Amino acid sequence: MKQKVLVVAGGDLTAEEIALIDPEKYYIITADAGAKKLVQAGITPHLAVGDFDTAGEEFADELMQSGIEVERLPAEKEETDLHYALTKALEHQTGGEVLILGALGGARLDHLLANVGLLEWLEARGTRGVLLHSSNRVRFFSGPGKIELRQGEFPYISLIPVSREVMGIVTDGLKYPLKNETLYRGFTRGISNELASGSGWVSIRSGKCLLVESRDR
User: What letter does residue 138 receive in the DSSP assignment?
Assistant: First the structure.
């Protein structure tokens, strides 16, 4: 049975997230500087990809010398290092969820937005991506579709339309319920809902939507 896949990019990565990374449970792929963050934490990735413009060519050589599989990419290319890492993830796992760490936060808003957009790219290929950060968890889903929710470290739940409108939204277990309603891109009605009990769910009939779970710290 194939392992689940975990992908680590070069953005913010806290000790809390590093603690989730189990090489016995996951096939670990890193994108550029993501490898350096893991090695510094004493974790060995299975595959490191990237142009290594951030981590450095010497570091890539050190990875290879230590027996880690490395795929060097050209600096000038038509996809980001994380995008390429996700293509490799799909070679190891189709369906289910791919956990993505280190893809939120940091100085580059363009990369952050592109990383969120990759969730739709994964969904189109039959796999759900989960962007996890110390303050946020982001998932993408399209209609007809449903996402289960459980009370935990993220108290706030927001629905952000990606398509012009998201129709037939039904929620269960939320403080502010939606009953066969529509949310529109550019409007903020879906922001900062909360679970009213230990679990709940959100379903949509049509459209594309981000579900963002967050906390203030």
Answer: E
